[in-house]
Amino acid sequence: MPPEKKQKTAPAAPGKPCPVCGKPATAAAAPFCSDRCRQIDLGHWLTGSYRIPARDDDVEQD
Ligand SMILES: [Zn+2]
Questions:
Q1: Distance from residue 21's CA to the centre of ligand 1 (Å)
Q2: Angle at CA of residue 17, ends 15 and 20, nearest 5°
Q3: Average pLDDT for residues 40-62, to the nearest whole number?
Q4: Domain ranges within the chain, ordered by starting residue
Q5: Quick one: the chain helix, strand, coil %, rounded to 5?
Q6: Does pLDDT of 43 surpass 60?
Q7: Which of 17, 25, 29, 55 is deepest in the core (most CB within 10 A)?
């Protein structure tokens, strides 16, 4: 296996553009602008290796 440099989690740096939507990131959700974008980015990662089960409330109870 080739030596791979792992990216360390960057500290909260508000002011940087959100990698998802480009809006200024906030300290609360850095490096994203919001938790929503964080989830979106996380979804991109997950879909690369895993499948996210759709959560549809399609359960019919009688
Ligand atoms: Zn964003």
A1: 4
A2: 140
A3: 69
A4: 14-49
A5: 25, 5, 70
A6: yes
A7: 25
